[in-house]
Write a structure and sequence with these properties.
By secondary structure, the protein is an alpha+beta fold. Helix content is 63%, strand content 9%. The chain has helices at 11-41, 48-69, 77-97, 110-119, 122-141, 163-258, 265-291, 305-319, 343-359, 390-395, 410-421, 447-456; strands at residues 300-304, 325-329, 338-342, 366-372, 376-382, 425-430, 436-443. It has a five-stranded mixed β-sheet with strand order 2-4-5-7-6, with helices on one face. Strands 1-3 form a two-stranded antiparallel sheet. Helix 3 (77-97) runs parallel beside helix 5 (122-141), helix 6 packs antiparallel against helix 7 and helix 8 crosses helix 9. It catalyses: ATP + protein L-histidine = ADP + protein N-phospho-L-histidine.
Length: 457
């Protein structure tokens, strides 16, 4: 439940390693396809054993990367650069066996350079420029020539041919050489176009997602800032209200003694109600003072979801005993699911229940639906009142509004902020049958976290 607010270090670097793993899979597929086409489609005599050995080595490297992504250890930029260098060496060996610089797909050396420039700082990119340039230069002089692109081989049988027949044979070999390069350029264009399109789309989606996350973070920061301001004002108000409230409590106690029940029964009952409300105010101020400065995790405890719902409803019943409630609990719930029973969440749910009770007629009451699984708790609170104004639903909870007779004011803003801060969701709607409905979703404590707590706690 608390994992969404914890810092996620090295997310971008680990994501880069994952993309490198995906790209290497694409490269393996492309190389395997090219070897298959060259051998079976074009009839080129290639050193297949050495080629398949190189492909197997790249597969082993990719298997290591897959296992590495499943470990929690930190991924470094140097590690990513080292893996890209190994990819360059593997590509160099493949090209060495297939004609070196004369191979029509020699452009593949641009891919490690592009990947390095995108994923790593500028210094790594310039180092990759040096490495790929040196490897390209070496492949010009040292390589295993492709049999199909040697247009003027000297064969003993060619000595018996006439000059005209020898010229025709040379022209046929030149045409075969040209067709192979045309095919290599076509394959390079198709592969490059697909790769560029794939990366452009994914990069665009990543940028859009990052912009949305930044907008949400900015909105959350502004909302939290307003909550901090309201909390400061609330603490100041609680401090200022303590003394006059104590004075009122003393005066009320004296009035109860001056007007005994047997002589002034009606006035005595009214004074007792006033005294109860004063005690309730003092209790709320005490809770506020005791909660000031506490961390969220310290103010809660791990509870079974069923027990937590009973506790919330019992606290609400203590102040709204006259309100009718219909309780609906789904039969298909995970009875072992647990939640962090944080005080702010409890007050948020109680605030929604109070608003629903005040909006509904006394004889109609409210409905409380509860359902949960291993991951989330779903609450649905429905009243039978006039419903929410249409313009109110659009910004409900996003900002404080002026309180009205339904009580939808600053309390709702704090409720919305608390639930969003915990990674939950809250939605407001009006039902066609009448009344308003509030749907709340809260993340539950993962079972792995529970096991860790017992193991290390």
């Amino acid at each position: 439940m608390l994992s969404h607010i914890l810092p996620k270090a090295e997310i971008s670097i680990r994501e880069n390693l994952r993309w490198l793993y995906i790209l290497r899979n694409l490269m393996l597929f492309a190389v395997t396809f090219a070897v298959f086409i060259a051998v079976n489609g074009l009839g080129i005599n290639l050193p297949q054993n050495q080629l398949w050995l190189a492909i197997f080595a790249i597969s082993i490297l990719n298997l290591y990367t897959w296992l590495r992504l499943r470990t929690p250890e930190e991924v470094t930029e140097h590690e990513i650069f080292s893996q890209i260098c190994m990819d360059v060496l593997a590509l160099a060996y493949l090209l060495y066996l297939t004609g070196g610089a004369s191979n029509p797909i020699i452009w593949v050396f641009l891919l490690p350079l592009i990947v390095t420039a995108i994923m790593l700082p500028q210094a790594y990119a310039w180092n990759m420029v040096i490495i790929t340039s040196c490897v390209y230069t070496v492949l010009i002089a040292y390589n295993v020539p492709l049999p199909a692109i040697e247009p003027h081989l000297v064969h003993p049988a060619m000595a018996e041919l006439t000059p005209e027949m020898s010229l025709q044979l040379h022209l046929m070999n030149d045409r075969r050489y040209f067709n192979l390069h045309v095919f290599g350029m076509w394959f390079g264009f198709v592969f490059s176009a697909g790769l560029v399109a794939f990366f452009v789309v994914e990069l665009s989606n990543t940028l859009k997602e990052r912009e949305r996350n930044l907008a949400d973070a900015r909105e959350s920061a502004l909302r939290d800032e307003r909550v901090v301001s309201l909390g400061t004002l609330a603490a100041s108000a609680a401090h200022d209200m303590g003394t006059p409230l104590g004075t009122i409590a003393i005066l009320t106690h004296e009035m109860v003694e001056d007007f005994p029940e047997h002589r002034y029964p009606e006035l005595y009952q009214k004074l007792m109600i006033v005294q109860q409300q004063i005690d309730r105010c003092k209790q709320a101020l005490s809770v506020m003072s005791a909660s000031a400065g506490e961390m969220r995790a310290e103010s809660g405890k791990v509870m079974l979801v069923s027990e937590y719902i009973d506790e919330v409803l019992n606290q609400w019943r203590a102040h709204k005993s006259a309100t009718r409630m219909k309780l609906f609990v789904s039969p298909n719930v995970d009875m072992a699911a647990k939640i962090i029973a944080e005080r702010t969440v409890t007050h948020s749910i109680i605030n929604i229940l109070n608003n629903a009770a005040e909006a509904s007629p006394v004889d109609a009451g409210i409905e409380f639906h509860a359902d949960w699984n291993e991951e989330n708790l779903f609450l649905r609170i429905r009243d039978f009142g006039p419903g929410l104004p249409a313009e109110f639903i659009d910004f409900a909870g996003h900002q404080p509004v002026k309180s009205n007779k339904q009580g939808m004011g600053v309390g709702l803003f704090l409720t919305y902020t608390t639930i969003k801060r915990l990674g939950g969701t809250i939605q407001f709607s009006n039902l066609d049958s009448g009344g308003a409905c509030v749907e709340i979703s809260l993340p539950l404590l993962a079972k792995e976290s529970i096991h860790d707590e017992f193991a290390y706690g």
